[in-house]
Amino acid sequence: MVKISTLLFAALLLLFGCQSNNKGNQERLSVAEPDSIYQPKYAKGFLIKYYDGYRQLVLNDPWGDKTKFESIALVETAELKAKLQQTNDYVLDYPAIKWIALSSTMVNYADKLEMKNTISAVAEPQYISDDFIQSSIEKGSIRNVGMAVAPDIEVVVDVEPDFMMVSPFKDNHFSAITSAGIPVVTNADYLEHTPLGRAEWLVFVGELLGKGEKAKRQFNAIEREYLAVKKSVQNISIRQSVFTGHIYQGIWYTPAGESYMANFFNDAGFDYIYKDTKGTGSLSLDYETIIDKAEHTDCWVLIINHPLAISYTEIEKIDKRYTDFEAFKSENMVVTNASHSLYFEKGLLQPHIVLADLVDAVYPGIIENHKAIYFHKLDKK
Predict the structure, then answer these.
(1) What are the two backbone dihedrals, phi and then psi, of residue 78, each rounded to the nearest 5 degrees?
(2) d(C-alpha 327, C-alpha 58), whole Å
(3) Does residue 1 or residue 46 have the better pLDDT?
(4) Which domains, and CATH codes, for the chain?
(5) Tens of pLDDT along 336-359?
């Protein structure tokens, strides 16, 4: 009977869960002047306002609508809760002590802040490499909510988290969760177009978990190291030309010229062959187009998920056409096999290391005693 009642409750939430939690834009931000504001240097998706007794996280619309935003008040006293509920989308206790992470990168934020013990549930744990998370799932102290795009509402409600952190989707997948009274906090780091912009979301997560100052110090250290590597290649007289991507279901996807990866290449001192294209997403090309432009390019930077170790022989097995590129023939390829390097899981918060990897692989000797973590020059046959 309890099981049937729970399922009926979930069904009703799905049926009536289309009500928006958003209040009118003119009402949702505090009218009082903040004591101070954290305006990110690189991230475009958030800012933080500090008031006496609480913090307000302001989230810009992930899709660029400047008339829309969300606000989250982090309160230190119970007296402020009722007052701020009318001017914020969510009012949360500060700091949060129990939350749900729907991606492995969110777990990585908590790891960086030494706050993994605050995670009460995760989505798709098969993609999370962290030993603490895996052992906690086995013991039952961390729950599995299933798929990130459709978390199990019964488990979410049972966990009773302070909030659930999600990546933004244009379609609202979480209306039933919010209708159940669970705050849904959007982390739009993957929509940032610069490596430091993505890493700066560490400050956002840090504020939620009561580690804002620590997160700022950590990000400042990341920034310093990143900028030092960037400076080391500024005087290179002849930039190596590079291309990237590979064939997936008949299409060659490569970053547009204003994208996250294109910015990485520029900071690494590369001459990216599609640097002059517009857009922040990916270009969808056929093989004929890419071979025409990239056949004689100096270097191929390959990001791939592959179960086996990557070698020139293995690349030829994947697709014989890859041997047509001069970068393959001259054995001038830089590779990360994400299924082994954990680039997508951990690289976001180590852009300084990623940048150093790229520079060291293409311009060896500029960075002394560097040990590759994510990208490496592919060994010769």
Answers:
(1) -65, -30
(2) 46
(3) 46
(4) 2-187 (3.40.50.1980), 235-377 (3.40.50.1980)
(5) 999 999 999 999 999 999 999 999
**Cα 257 from Cα 271, distance rounded (Å):** 11
Q: What are the phi and psi torsion angles at 56 (to 5°)? A: -125, 115
Residue pair 312/328 in contact (Cβ under 8 Å)? The answer is yes
pLDDT digits (tens, 9 = 90+) for 189-199: 999 999 999 99
DSSP 265: H
The amino acid at residue 77 is T
Q: How many CB atoms lie within 10 A of CB 126?
A: 8
Is pTM beyond 0.70? Reply is yes
- DSSP string over 94-115: SS---EEE-SHHHHHHHHHTT-
Reference 136, options 155, 152, 117; nearest CA is: 117
CA-to-CA distance for 51 and 75, rounded, in angstroms? 10
- Is residue 191 within 8 A of residue 178, CB to CB? The reply is no
| CA gap 264, 53 in Å, rounded | 39
The one-letter amino acid code at 276 reads D
8 Å CB contact between 153 and 180 = yes
Residue 236's identity, in one-letter code, is I
Nearest Cα to Cα of residue 350 among 259, 249, 229? 229
The closest alpha carbon to 298, from 244, 364, 236, belongs to 244
Burial of 135 (0-12, 13-18, 19+ CB in 10 A): exposed
**CA proximity to 205, closest of 74, 84, 347, 88:** 74
Query: Is omega for the bond preceding 95 within 30 degrees of 0, making it cis?
Result: yes
Q: Where are the alpha helices (DSSP H) in the chain?
A: 2-16, 25-28, 79-84, 104-112, 131-139, 153-159, 175-179, 195-199, 201-208, 212-232, 260-267, 287-294, 312-318, 326-329, 338-341, 343-346, 351-362
Strand partners, 243: 300
Number of residues that this document lists for the chain: 381
Instruction: State both tokens at 309.
Output: 């170790």
Identity of the residue numbered 185? V
Sheet holding 247-248, edge to edge: 247-248, 251-255, 282-285
pLDDT at 360: 97
